[in-house]
Amino acid sequence: MNSRVESLALPGQLAGRTAIVTGASSGIGRTTAALFAGRGARVLAVDLNADGLSELADQVAQPDSFRTFTVDLTEDDAPDRVVHECLDRFGGLDTLANIAGKAGDAPLEDTSDDDLEFFLRVNLGTAFRLSRSAIRNFAESGGAIVNTASTFGLVGVRGSAPYSAAKGAVTSLTRQLAADVGRRNIRVNAVAPGLVATPATQAKIDAGVFDDVVTRSRPLPRVGAPADIANAVAFLASDDAAFITGVTLPVCGGWSTTRFRE
Ligand SMILES: NC(=O)c1ccc[n+]([C@@H]2O[C@H](COP(=O)([O-])OP(=O)(O)OC[C@H]3O[C@@H](n4cnc5c(N)ncnc54)[C@H](O)[C@@H]3O)[C@@H](O)[C@H]2O)c1
Predict the structure, then answer these.
(1) Residue of the nearest CA to atom 34 in ligand 1?
(2) Which of 41, 138, 159, 164 has its Cβ near the most Cβ atoms within 10 Å?
């Protein structure tokens, strides 16, 4: 699932851009980092999984403009360390793709305060804190931030209270930051993936847990691919989306936007 990243190149869309991409060891973040590089960006690929980063770095076709940085983004000094690494390596920063995150199922009554703290810290806190450090150091000319929300933050689902609450807050953060930094020509948008086949979801997909979701409640009845999301992230990060800010774009085959009558 993590192979064939080099076939995604559409040269030029992100030429001249300098991007930080988080969650880059796996799944959506990995494909996005490779796609950004393929489309001309200098990329600092960030994750806590060093092996995954090094495997990706071996595969990208643009090694001179691709660097990796291993860090747990929930650590206190992680945002500043990531941004300074990007400035040191590439001499600037104008694009941030906040993709690192972690899902989890738990009905509210079965959660602990630690669960709530964890999902907020990993899914909201990483995007909030890294965006803050990045914005302080963004290029004078402006730039773009793309966050990763979730369809679970757009509609109510059973059994996902802490994760869905955190992802809903990512959508709210996206609107708020867009308002804060628009006058600096910094755009802030988000993608809200639906079910996508990644190492985080593959076991449940294989076990048929989501068959009903995919076949009965999506106008486009297939599981998403990481490239479906990466393409949307690249679009929102690029000048193709120059007049778009503050939106959360569902990328879910229509799951969050339609209801089917059987
Ligand atoms: N796959 C889906 O169906 C789906 C649906 C909706 C939203 N999302 C969101 O998309 C994003 C990517 O999901 P994925 O399915 O590719 O997951 P994944 O588990 O394949 O990849 C997530 C990556 O984030 C990294 N990461 C997690 N916590 C980190 C931390 N504290 N510091 C640094 N790196 C960290 C992990 O090491 C991993 O490489 C997540 O934010 C997820 O919530 C995924």
Answers:
(1) 47
(2) 41
